Amino acid sequence: MDLGLFSIGIGAAARPETIALIAGTAERCGFHSLWAPEHVVLFEQYASRYPYNDEGRIPLAARADLLDPLIALTYAAACTTRLRLGTGVCLLPERNPVVTAKEVASLDVVSNGRFDFGIGIGWLAEEFAALGVPWQRRSARTREYVAALRTLWTEAEPEFNGEFVRFAKLTMFPKPVQKPHPPILIGGNTAAALRRVAEFGDGWFGFGLTPDDARASIAEIRRLARAAGRDPARLRFIAASRAKLDLDAVKRFREAGVDELIVHGVPADPQAIVPRLEQLAQTLVAPASGL
Q1: Which tens digits make up the pLDDT trace of 241-278?
Q2: Longest dimension (CA), the chain
Q3: No. of H helices and E strands in the chain?
Q4: 42, 73, 201, 246: most buried, per Cβ within 10 A?
């Protein structure tokens, strides 16, 4: 079973020397992947409810450093050769899809095909308002943006005429290294998010899960995929757990159908990063590789 590491680009891990340290150590210690989150802006006060804890508040100070994830991951790509790099998750409906297609293709090229494009529809209405993007119908916008991205990445002279994005015949090169394109992993734990995975995702990025949560969600995605005429065996299931993990928990996630488990293992203190990742490598990463 593969183990990934969350995260870079946030707090102390937004410094270039710390990104290099985390990425290089994670690769040396056998982690499969490294992930970066996204928020363009945050707020001291907000009415929206954060969906991944009981308090409904994001566990991040509004004034914390938070890099653009594609830039943070590009820097990490330059410091590594094997480690996969992913967004966990990119808030796709907040972005211009044509610009995003160019940025993702560029990152896939400079990383030599190591990028996983995790996306979500967002939970912070105040952020959408600040960016001038409608909060309503963001799911439909995301679905259409994904179709436009795939068109831009795979066609020599793409054109698109949708409700939210339109462009006449054009050229965009380079194309991504990965064919047909980097995997699009749909994030979220709601019933609607699971439907999006089943209907147009290449995989799922679940967040804040227990093994039982993962088992139920994966079974539902597989059921929905079959109903949509898609082969669930072609989907990749990635789960991030906030709970403290041991090898028994990793085994239970694997038995639940999880292909890759994301560990929240980066200490706030840069001096503690190397010992912590080496400890995780010994207790979790190496034993998990045999599961």
Answers
A1: 877 899 999 999 999 999 999 999 899 999 999 999 99
A2: 53
A3: 10, 11
A4: 73
Total number of domains in the chain = 1
CATH code for the domain in which residue 236 is found: 3.20.20.30
Counting Cα atoms < 13 Å in the Cβ hemisphere of 173 gives 3
What integer best gives the mean pLDDT of the chain?
97
Whose CA is closest to 263, among 18, 5, 2?
5
Asked whether the beta carbons of 69 and 90 are under 8 A apart, the reply is: yes
The model's pLDDT over 39-60, given as tens digits with 9 standing for 90+, comes to: 999 999 999 999 999 999 999 9
What are the strands, taking DSSP E only, across 84-126? 84-87, 90-91, 115-120
| Alpha-carbon torsion angle 259, 264, 270, 275, nearest 10 | -70
CA atoms within 13 A on the CB side of 11: 11
Each residue's pLDDT tens digit, 206-232: 999 999 999 999 999 999 999 999 999
Can you give the pLDDT at residue 244?
82
**Domain contains 163:** no
Q: Is residue 25 part of a domain?
A: yes
User: What is the residue type of 200?
Assistant: F
Range of the domain at 73: 2-96+184-288
H or E stretch covering 205: strand 203-207
For the whole model, what pTM was predicted? 0.97
How far is the C-alpha of 286 from the C-alpha of 278, rounded, in Å?
10
Sign of CA dihedral 51, 288, 11, 83: negative
Residue 22 domain-assigned (yes or no):
yes
Tokens of 153: 């990445």
Q: Does some domain include residue 116? A: no
Q: Please, what sign has the CA dihedral across residues 170, 171, 175, 179?
A: positive
d(CA 105, CA 12): 28
- Whole-angstrom distance between the N-terminal and C-terminal Cα of the chain? 5
Place of tokens 């928990």: 249
